[in-house]
Design a protein that fits this description.
Keywords: Membrane, Repeat, Transmembrane, Transmembrane helix, WD repeat. The longest helix has 16 residues. This protein starts with 5 loop residues before the first strand and ends with a helix. By secondary structure, it is mostly beta strands. 4% of the residues lie in helices and 48% in strands. The chain folds into four domains: 108 residues, Immunoglobulin-like; 94 residues, Immunoglobulin-like, CATH 2.60.40.10; 120 residues, Sandwich (Immunoglobulin-like); 188 residues, Methylamine Dehydrogenase, Chain H. β34 and β35 form a beta hairpin. The strands form 13 sheets. Strands 10-16-15-12-13 form a five-stranded mixed sheet, with no helix packed on it. Strands 18-25-24-20-22 form a five-stranded mixed sheet, with no helix packed on it. The chain has a four-stranded antiparallel sheet with strand order 1-3-6-5, with no helix packed on it.
Length: 724
């Protein structure tokens, strides 16, 4: 084993210490046997004492030696001031350990310490694990205290907590017994009161332990009570009126009482600021108030304003804001109040209100918004409506003997007048109106007296001409050929006529029978006709006795549609077909049925016409007066005696489309006033919308819109065909 480079010797091998008397001292001499300058450190280790405990039972001088040259020595003095083992009496071995960081070596020396019975009481050691406490009002905290009896006798002690209001403490003193050399821990419970009883500040407290002999120990700590609570801001009243008396001509100032209650644990200075957009004269007395914790104070706000001579009651808003000197709790609650000041005019406004109401009524009565206005719209039942090709205009005919041109977008904008002008005002009711397909610049009207009139729409009141075959033979149907060269007219007598409607700018006179191309007499009164889009060869005719036939114009033959037979009061009121699906025919009768027919077999194969679908328009079976198909045959509009306009979605094979729940894909899009009969409907598709026009017995022309159902197979197929 190598020789130690640190030499160590002690002045004593044994020493005695009695607690309560003088300290016991011994010297330690350390020699540097190395060949370099080194420093030495020393510690004393008592047997039975944990190594991690603080060595406060002895004092060392010096704590660290200065660096010594080779062969030099240093002297440490160790002074025993307390027992290494609290409460111990007897002998204990002390190990003197000397070490050097530079040499990375140590050396030890053993000394025996005899601890005698102590003299009298020994002061207790107090410790606060937490010396700084923070708490809010209404919060309970625990103040832990550790007590150690370093003496060799048990100790009885009275523990006091001083510096904090006794009312805050659950118990302000405790009686404790501490065994010799033992350590105990206790705690004081402190209940912080409400904000107005616990001012926000730092409270210095002292924990004092007093023994029966009067020997005491103390330790200090701090309790910080944090800000809490609020300053309540109230106004009474919140609303005033100038003048207070409704009939008073003079206006006196009015006062608002602003009340502030400090329900916090902070003293405040409150300042009031007033903002108003109107010319209101406001005076605040006082501008600032002192608010001690728990205190209530008031500010008076006096307001003056000039009253107008005329006009309505003015509602002035006065914003009253508060500012606190200590913003640790924010501002008042609420931070601002809105006061209302109602100012009446000097002259009452009831007379002005009556005059304005009468004026407004007159303006409304004379505007297009009034459905009964004789200067706009129809005054009697509307018998026929039709869109133009661009679906931006609409024409209608009525029993009031007028035809009207409408602007479609005006039906969806209340600030735009849908009424354009009256085109005609004749002596007989208008039964049917139709646009001339080419250019849509001419309108044909069928009258009650059997006349057919032609009007140029690009000019005001420009009657081109009149056609008439039999007087008083009412016109119930008009159909232009797609090239506009001829026109079919259907009459109540069962007569169907074809007219030559070609004209130039020089030849625009329609008169006499020289324009009659052909005629055909049927054995039933006719209510409606429709020219199929099949090379202008087939005209569908419907009417009394549930009769519906197809007139083959190429060979003058008639194909009968097998409709259930009816009596003289049974009518097929309406027929329609689509441009893109010409073999699909829709019919409507006065029994309330709508029927979809497949005409392909009866036209091309000389077989019987087949029914694709048939249903009651309503549950009680009121008459269906009109049906209309879109050009792609994906939608059917209907209207009748129940006063409702319905839109039916169809499949690509000519049947009613179904929703996912199995119900018909239909929608009620409109209804007439008092459920009066719908006499005519028309339907068009434009972009992503379906537009439905209707004319009814209540004199109104209506246009509604619905979104197209691209989720149904008919629209999906139409979209695919368009893209291809």
């Amino acid at each position: 084993m190598s020789q130690s480079l640190i030499g160590i010797s002690t002045s004593l091998k044994e020493l005695t210490f009695q607690p309560g008397s003088l300290p016991a001292n011994f010297e330690v001499n350390v020699v540097n046997y190395s060949d370099k300058f080194v420093s030495f450190q020393l510690e004393v280790i008592a047997a039975g004492v944990e190594g991690n405990l603080k060595h406060d039972w002895y004092v060392l001088s010096p704590e660290i030696s200065s660096k010594k040259p080779p062969g030099d020595s240093t002297k440490f003095i160790v002074q025993i001031i307390d027992t290494p083992l609290p409460g111990f009496v007897g002998q204990v071995n002390l190990t003197v350990r000397v070490f050097s960081i530079e040499l990375q070596q140590e050396n030890r020396q053993l000394i025996r310490l005899t601890v005698l019975q102590g003299l009298g009481e020994v002061a207790l050691k107090l410790k606060l694990p937490i010396a700084e406490f923070q708490a809010y009002p209404n919060q309970q905290i625990k103040i832990p205290v550790q007590l150690e009896n370093p003496g060799q006798k048990p100790a009885n002690v009275i523990l006091h907590l001083l510096g904090i209001e006794s009312a805050w403490l659950i118990e302000e003193k405790q009686s404790l017994h501490i065994p010799a050399g033992d350590r105990i821990e206790t705690a004081f419970l402190c209940q912080i009161p409400s904000p107005i009883e616990a001012f926000s500040q730092i409270y210095h407290f002292t924990v004092e332990a007093i023994q029966p002999s009067g020997l005491s120990s103390q330790i200090q700590g701090n309790l910080s009570v944090l800000p809490k609570g609020e300053v309540e801001f109230r106004c009474n009243p919140k609303q005033h009126r100038i003048p207070k008396n409704f009939l008073s001509f003079h206006s006196k100032p009015v006062n608002y009482q602003l009340e502030f209650e400090n329900a916090s644990n902070l003293d405040q200075i409150c300042r009031v600021v007033v903002h108003t957009e109107e010319k209101v004269d406001c005076q605040i007395l006082p501008e600032e108030i002192n608010l001690q914790s728990g205190m209530t104070n008031q500010v008076n706000l006096e307001t003056k304003v000039k009253r107008p001579w005329f006009g309505n009651e003015k509602k002035l808003l006065i914003e009253v804001a508060s500012e606190l000197s200590d913003r640790r709790l924010g501002n008042t609650e609420p931070a601002r109040q809105i006061l209302i000041l109602k100012v009446l005019p000097r002259i009452p406004t009831w007379l002005l209100a009556i005059v304005l109401a009468l004026l407004a009524y007159l303006l409304w009565w004379s505007s297009w918004l009034n459905p009964d206005n004789p200067y706009y719209g129809h005054q009697k039942a509307v018998n026929s409506v039709e869109f133009n090709g661009l679906v931006d205009d609409l024409i209608s005919g009525s029993n009031d003997r007028t035809t009207i041109l409408w602007r479609v977008d005006g039906f969806f904008n209340p600030f735009s007048n849908q009424f354009v002008r009256r085109i005609s005002n004749r002596d007989k009711a208008v039964r049917v109106v139709r646009y001339r397909p080419v250019d849509n610049n001419v309108m044909a009207t069928g009258l009650e007296n059997g006349e057919i009139q032609f009007w140029r729409l690009t000019q005001i009141n420009n009657l081109i001409g009149t056609l008439s075959y039999q007087k008083d033979d009412r016109v119930f149907g008009l159909e232009f050929t797609p090239d506009s060269r001829s026109l079919f007219s259907a009459h109540g007598s069962g007569l169907v006529l074809e007219w030559d409607t070609t004209f130039t700018k020089r030849n625009i006179n329609f008169s006499g029978n020289e324009r009659l191309l052909r005629k055909r007499q049927f054995d039933f009164a006719i209510s409606h006709i429709k020219l199929l889009n099949l090379e202008q060869k087939y005209l569908v005719i419907s009417g009394r006795y549930n009769q519906a036939v197809i007139w083959d114009l190429s060979n003058d033959k008639v194909i009968k549609i097998p409709y259930p037979p009816g009596g003289q009061d049974d009518y097929i009121f309406a027929v329609d077909s689509s441009e893109m699906v010409p073999f699909l025919l829709a019919t409507a009768d006065n029994q309330g049925y709508i029927t979809l027919w497949d005409l392909e077999k009866c036209i091309l194969q000389k077989g019987a016409c087949e029914i694709r679908d048939r249903w009651l328009n309503t549950k009680v079976g009121e008459s269906v007066r009109s049906v209309a198909l879109t050009s792609n045959a994906c939608y059917l509009a209907s209207g009748g005696d129940d006063g409702k306009v319905r839109l039916w979605a169809l499949t690509s094979d000519g049947k009613r489309a179904k929703e996912q729940n199995g119900e018909d894909a239909k929608k009620e899009v409109d209804r007439s006033d008092e459920n009066k009969a719908i006499f005519s409907v028309d339907v068009k598709t434009i972009e992503n919308h379906v537009l439905i026009a209707s004319g009814s017995e209540d004199t109104q022309v209506r246009v509604k819109t619905q979104k197209r159902r691209f989720d149904l197979n008919c629209e999906m197929q139409t979209k695919q065909n368009t893209e291809n």
